[in-house]
Specification:
Elements: H1 2-22, H2 32-64, H3 71-101, H4 120-151, H5 160-183
Amino acid sequence: MIAGFICLTSILPITKLSVGISYFHQCPTQPQLLIWLIVSGCRGLFCIVLIFAIIGIVIAMDRHCKKPISNLMILSGLLIVAISAFSNFGWSIVGIVWTLSIGSTVQHKDSTNTSTYCHSTPYVFVILMAFFQTIIIITFLIVGCFYGRRESHGPTNTSNNQAINELHKQYRNYIIIFLLSLVFFI
């Protein structure tokens, strides 16, 4: 099941990587677009491996350790996810800027005119991916803020140890859900 999920989530980064490599010399007016695709694809694959490693560590610690997951582990996982999300957001903005900077002059028909030519496949693909990623990231941030604010009150009417254990379980579940959802906008 995990291997199938990894394959499913790897489709988009592999597609970015393959389009960037396949059309590498086909956009002379803005070669950074193809570099954007290649870097975005490599970063996406790296993040997928990293996210599943963190999930594996959290699950293994939960199953094999008698004590709850430490706050340091939770914070380091969230820090990695936050850095990845912000770098993804920034990289999406860069892709949008690079595409829109040639939007009025780009043409897709005459490949001999290298000052304005860019093959339509990578050009449209970068536009779609950059806007899609930006919208998804903003949506997840908004939903995450509302969900986190709603659930931040914690358990009531329990002893101190039970409350701490319950909070650790909630943190673990939040990390796993957040990491899995993060995979979809890589």
